[in-house]
Amino acid sequence: MTLPLQPLSPLDGRYRQAVSGLGEYLSEAGLNRARVEVEVEWLLYLTDHEFFGSSRLDEDQRRALRDLVTSFGQPEIDELAELEAVTRHDVKAVEYLVRNKLEQLGLTAVEELTHFACTSEDINNLSYALTIREAVTGVWMPALRRVVAELRRQAFEHRAVPMLARTHGQPATPTTMGKELAVFVYRLERIIRQLEQTEYLAKFSGATGTFAAHLAASESTDWPHVSEEFVTSLGLTWNPLTTQIESHDWQAELYQRVAHANRVLHNLCTDVWTYISLGYFTQIPVAGATGSSTMPHKINPIRFENAEANLELSSALLDSLSQTLVTSRLQRDLTDSSTQRNVGVALGHSLLALDNILGGLGQISLNADLLAADLDGNWEVLGEAIQTVVRAEIAAGRSSITDPYALLKDLTRGKRIGQAELVAFVSGLDIGAEAKARLVALTPATYVGLSSELVDYLGA
């Protein structure tokens, strides 16, 4: 028995609700709406400037044409499908849709200015720049900022909670949970600033980027100026030197930065997962939820595990997009046409991961008592402090010890020692009384340096 028609991608099935915001821009319908917008705005630009004997449309006519964009919905989607079934060309179908609208409005006099001097890629590259910009700045970035805001909140909340560090997975110089979370905030906010500087480039210069058809139609027009003015009127950055296609370098740069953010987030997930495994974070039970089909006691860190998987998928796709989009055979090939249709998939997996990370961060609670007990069981981490103080005392002429590192290595390497052993050891050291008192008073929980103060570098 054959199943009813089903979505092939989990982004359009199981996880649709979490990523639906991207569909507004990066779906086929979203792309077609942007294509309609570019066609309409180009027609209005030409008539506004009275090209080839045309005249500016009145406000009702302009509003009616722009309504084709603002009210774009299922009727237009269906009409485009019918037109494309005949034209076998998606952009040509959009052109005919606009022409049909002009006929309905009684504007056949300017119909031939529709798609004037345009190659399909003139429409496409502008449309992709518009839709990708809106998807990134209006959907993906706000989700990233929500995650960073929650991390920032927890970094300040836990700034003074001491925690045993684990360099190479082994007990190491203590830190605080807040400072460790602040590291991720700092990394991600730096990437956000880079993303905010993204240039969304576009070209509008004809079949091979030479304005040849434009010049044939009007030799006296400054077509590069017209092109730049039109592109920038849409809030995009004009690219004057291209082939038939805009070179996609800005897309490669954008996707590399998003992939970089993904990888920092992946690092966050693996660390939080490990902290949960160690018991540093406890997970807040969700009523009715099942952690394991056979082990009822379990609360699995599935939010972070799901995020890891989706961040890996997103980064793999973004890497592929970055690598392939910057190459086009000679003046044009169609590999980018298929490739760019997956931008929404790449961002969708990242957006789904962000949704899971935010949900996961909201379902954990710091177990400060366990962190304190862990510190109290690892007094050997003070070996670093002791040997460093001894070296300072030697330099100051207050000690005759010859090899403080070896001395502490013999005492602590691969061993568990307690407070009593360390106090006895420090008491017998050949160092000044003030240094000795300072070391005797030190505990693993207080040996956190400037961890709490460092969180302030995040700013307000």
Automatic annotation (TrEMBL):
InterPro entries hit by this protein: Fumarase/histidase_N, Fumarate_lyase_CS, Fumarate_lyase_fam, Fumarate_lyase_N, L-Aspartase-like, PurB_bact, PurB_C
GO molecular function: N6-(1,2-dicarboxyethyl)AMP AMP-lyase (fumarate-forming) activity
Coiled-coil parts of chain: none
Residue ranges constituting the Fumarate lyase N-terminal domain according to the UniProt record: 58-307
Alphabetically ordered keywords of this record: Lyase, Purine biosynthesis
Biochemical pathway: Purine metabolism; IMP biosynthesis via de novo pathway; 5-amino-1-(5-phospho-D-ribosyl)imidazole-4-carboxamide from 5-amino-1-(5-phospho-D-ribosyl)imidazole-4-carboxylate: step 2/2; Purine metabolism; AMP biosynthesis via de novo pathway; AMP from IMP: step 2/2
Alphabetical list of Pfam families matching this protein: ASL_C (PF08328), Lyase_1 (PF00206)
Gene Ontology biological-process annotations: IMP biosynthetic process
Signal sequence, start to end: none
Record-annotated Adenylosuccinate lyase PurB C-terminal domain positions: 328-448
The protein's role, per its UniProt record: Catalyzes two reactions in de novo purine nucleotide biosynthesis. Catalyzes the breakdown of 5-aminoimidazole- (N-succinylocarboxamide) ribotide (SAICAR or 2-[5-amino-1-(5-phospho-beta-D-ribosyl)imidazole-4-carboxamido]succinate) to 5-aminoimidazole-4-carboxamide ribotide (AICAR or 5-amino-1-(5-phospho-beta-D-ribosyl)imidazole-4-carboxamide) and fumarate, and of adenylosuccinate (ADS or N(6)-(1,2-dicarboxyethyl)-AMP) to adenosine monophosphate (AMP) and fumarate.
Protein name, UniProt field: Adenylosuccinate lyase
Organism: Subtercola boreus
Lineage: Bacteria, Bacillati, Actinomycetota, Actinomycetes, Micrococcales
